Amino acid sequence: MSETTHPSPNDGRQPRRVLSLLDAVCIIVGTIIGAGIFKMPGYVAANLPNVYWLAGIWIFGGLVALVGALCFAELTTCYPDRGGDYGYLKRAYHRRVGFAFSWAAFWIIRPGSIGSMAMICGDFLSEIMPWNVNYAGNVFAAISVVLITWVNLVGIRIGKTSLNLLTFAKVVGILLIILAAFSIWSVGPSDVAQPVDQTAAVAEGAEGADVADGAEAETVSVWSSFWLAMVFVMFAYGGWNDIAFVATEVKNPRRNLLGALVIGTSCVVLIYLLVNLALVMGLGFDRMAELGRNWQDVTSVLVSENMGDFGLTLFAILVAVSCLGAMNAMIFTSPRIYSATALDYPQLSWLAATDDHRGWWRAMLLQMVVTLMFIGLFGFNEKMEFDQQGIENIVVATAPYFWSFLALTVMSLVVCRWKYDQQQFRGFRVPLFPLFPLFFTAACIFMTYRGWVFMAQQELWIPTIGIAVWMLVGIGLSFALKSSHSREA
After folding, report:
1. Can you say whether the dihedral through the CA atoms of 108, 392, 319, 68 is positive or negative?
2. For residues 206-218, b (16+ Cβ closer than 10 Å) or e, as one string?
3. CB-CB contact of 59 with 266 (8 Å)
4. Which of 20, 142, 198, 206 sees the fewest Cβ atoms within 10 Å?
5. Domains of the chain with bracketed CATH
6. What is the pTM for the complete model shown?
7. Residue 307, Cα to own-chain centre: how many angstroms?
């Protein structure tokens, strides 16, 4: 069979299938549930009129994520390419598109995601320490990156075991907070659905205020705020696509990959709904929105008001564990991207996976160094103190690249259906094709657009230009490096 029609365009060296359905579900849940669910509910509520909109947007965001998961279910079962997105992009478009993704993943997307989680982890841990040191948060962030990298360097079995344990720990912890919130149910039905004053919402959500008619202006403002809230919701749902990076290591992939994507994503949707409902019951919708407008963590407020300092300490530990779990999932999956790329480029062969996984070790260590650079660059303000805004800036600066490449990856499903005879593959087929892939691609394009707009509004010109220039360097490098394939996938 020629290379253009073979299910896997890599060199045939396939890794062992050692990941069970449970492992795959834990990768998805562990990656998605990081710190977003603790930080985002208040921000989302601040941009919505009542609790019904709040529940609706989290359900809608979950459905968008589920549509994307179904698209990836077909990609992972029909095209078991090493490196996940890298293989799909190379197959559908050109090897240089795949290389551009790997470059962005190594320098921008993965260190940005890991670094932001590490900084949130360090922030919460520093708050419960008996001493007050300006840079303690960044020290804890750096230690967490080194620690989780070391755990994964020990071996794949240790890495997946720690991933599973951290995932179970944070899910149990979140469920305990939900039970505690319901046990202190402090508001009634009349308190949870009161509309908030949209004029006090985040400034970006006030687009359309110049409309002459008052009722029409209010409608425009609500929908504009809804789309801003959607950015926060989709950030909280991000990460389920990481399963593609280890798809070739999952046992019984035709059954387990689809099951993991559906089960994992559905579990997260349910947990997120319960968390938001618990917050509404414990604080009331108006209070949530008010705290969100002041950029306060609503979950911390709920815990501190009802459980005191001891409860707040336990909550900080839970957030730290949640962040460590998300970091572990990302550090565990990232080397697969770079190894797949290295197999196609002899000049990068030192990053390719070998029997003793030395290539993965090198990739993990280099990824750790780049992540520590991100923490150093974004984690301090002008006074060399811990910069809370730095966490947000990392997310904002890297989000457009994450969502734009995710859009290209999902569209690669449409391209591959057109280029290859689907009958030769026995994998899952996404329903309502091509509506689902097109719908999810549109959602990704919207997220990319909102990311660029937010960066412009925050005047983050230096990181924006710097990252863009470095991205162009990677594209130029893709022309300089010679591929090991005589023909492109």
Report:
1. negative
2. bebeeeeeeeebb
3. no
4. 20
5. 21-480 (1.20.1740.10)
6. 0.81
7. 30
Tokens 């559905």, residue located = 266
In tens digits, the chain (489 residues) has pLDDT values of 333 333 444 444 556 777 888 888 888 888 888 777 887 898 899 889 889 999 999 999 999 999 998 999 888 888 877 788 999 999 999 999 999 999 999 999 999 889 988 988 888 888 777 766 667 788 899 999 999 998 888 766 666 677 777 778 778 878 877 777 777 655 444 444 444 444 444 444 444 434 344 444 455 466 667 877 888 898 888 888 888 888 878 888 878 888 998 899 999 999 999 989 888 888 889 999 998 888 777 888 888 777 777 778 888 888 888 888 888 888 888 888 998 898 888 888 888 766 555 667 888 899 999 999 988 887 765 444 445 566 777 877 888 899 999 999 999 999 988 887 655 556 788 889 999 999 999 999 988 888 788 777 777 777 788 888 999 999 999 888 877 654 444
User: Which residue type is seen at 140?
Assistant: F
